[in-house]
């Protein structure tokens, strides 16, 4: 198998020693990324080549960086074992202009601590809810393994939709939702600046009555090795 390894030269050398042919991402059969930042940088552009994340904290879709796990994985890769699973890529638009793409989550959140704002949530053309909270996050199935899950979102299987969850809601009762592929978040009122954050990167302030539309516009294939099993979800 022809591999491109991003983010770890030692892993690249180990892959070559295991029998893989090293090449660039454009001609590789598989791109191996090390760390969440490297994975996001590659995956958000929806490459045609499948991606295998290492050490990216993505539940069963990320390979452990432990030496024994990597050695077993390299043997599987050299034998071209595994299969591809498609995951959504989000487009974030503000006032009709795309400002970012993401593969994990997008969030509106107050930029100052102890500030609560009011948000409206639409699925397609339908108003679903409004609430006061520190923020609101929309996560892909991959993103539900991280911050969104800690905020109360369910962990979603690939292909089941987008999770929408308030962040620290100003209510004793709050809900979470699963949307299809088109969610609009609007700042109905703010008691302080509100920021748009995509895949952990703070992009810009969002003004009152300004909306951020999040749509699934593409997919990226993640490579699943035989030993990367769904029962790893129990360890989250």
UniProtKB/TrEMBL annotation:
Keywords per UniProt: Kinase, Transferase
Biological processes, Gene Ontology terms: NAD+ metabolic process; NADP+ biosynthetic process
Pfam families, per the entry: NAD_kinase_C (PF20143)
Keyword set includes Transferase: yes
Keyword Transferase tagged: yes
PANTHER family: NAD KINASE (PTHR20275)
Gene Ontology MF, one: NAD+ kinase activity
InterPro entries, per the entry: ATP-NAD_kinase_N, ATP-NAD_kinase_PpnK-typ_C, NAD/diacylglycerol_kinase_sf
Protein name in the entry: NAD+ kinase
Tree of life domain: Archaea
